Amino acid sequence: MFYNLTCVNEVSRIENLEKLILKTCILKTGKSINWYKMDWKDCWEKGNMPWHIEAVHPKFLLHVDKITEKKNNAKILFPLCGKAVEMFYLAKKGHTIVGVEYIEIAVKQFFDENKLSYETKPVPEIDGDVYENEANNIKIYCGDYFKFSQTLETNFDGVWDRGGLEAVPIDQRGKYTDVMKSVMKRGAPCVTEVPDRPVGEGPPFNLTADEITRLYDLKTPPEKVDYDPASESLKSMNVDGMIYYYYKINS
Ligand SMILES: C[S@@+](CC[C@H](N)C(=O)[O-])C[C@H]1O[C@@H](n2cnc3c(N)ncnc32)[C@H](O)[C@@H]1O
């Protein structure tokens, strides 16, 4: 009897949690998007990308030396890269860039908007293709990040993780950081953006320093290097009061 009661309470607790998680938010366009069951393809097809910014991210500019460690030709990973302009910014400075993004529209827009030609090759491991501009040392793997591995790329000197770890479903975070750890050089830096917001809302989903410590097997907590309130463009994602924190992780 007691057991059944516990189960009923547990079920309603989970249902309530699901309702919270499945909360929808209304974008500026008036469209309602269920952010937990995020349909990234739909976002790209309809041009609903409130996370995308045309100018190089101000926090990236402030902390870029922590990512490259002032090396001349660092190999930098952009997981879940979208069409982040920071990739071309670093390529122009002589670094080698690898992005991973599974929506083809995003990848093509990146190359087209930066007026970069590209060649494509099939990559069966990720059920996709790699788009490459050899002259500028930029490659974007157009496929599932969770299938990306050290058989494709390894020895990354640094990572800029904005809109990656914070965007994936919470139950996939461990898998996400496992991929990251397997392709990075040991001890290489990753600067990551994570939001502080109520649990259950998102993406982007709340992430604490403790959780980062656990996910990256760190001996000491990650260094908090900066913070920022959510930008105006993100206000359309129901993120009022949300603060972004920027951590430097050396895993
Ligand atoms: C919030 S956006 C961040 C984009 C980019 N990092 C930026 O700063 O503009 C997340 C991106 O991840 C992509 N994405 C989501 N899940 C993915 C996966 N499993 N593999 C590859 N790309 C994925 C989405 O299509 C989307 O473009």
Automatic annotation (TrEMBL):
Pfam families xref list: TPMT
A molecular function (GO) term: thiopurine S-methyltransferase activity
Database matches in Gene3D superfamilies: Vaccinia Virus protein VP39
Highest taxon, organism lineage: Eukaryota
EC number: 2.1.1.67
InterPro entries named in the record: SAM-dependent_MTases_sf (IPR029063), TPMT (IPR008854)
Main localization, broad class: cytoplasm
Keywords per UniProt: Cytoplasm, Methyltransferase, S-adenosyl-L-methionine, Transferase
Compartments, as annotated in UniProt: Cytoplasm
Catalytic activity: S-adenosyl-L-methionine + a thiopurine = S-adenosyl-L-homocysteine + a thiopurine S-methylether
GO CC, any one term: cytoplasm
Leading EC class: transferase
GO BP: methylation
Keyword Methyltransferase: yes
Transmembrane in keyword set: no
Protein family membership: Belongs to the class I-like SAM-binding methyltransferase superfamily. TPMT family.
Protein name per its UniProtKB record: thiopurine S-methyltransferase
Species of provenance: Mytilus edulis
Lineage: Eukaryota, Metazoa, Spiralia, Lophotrochozoa, Mollusca
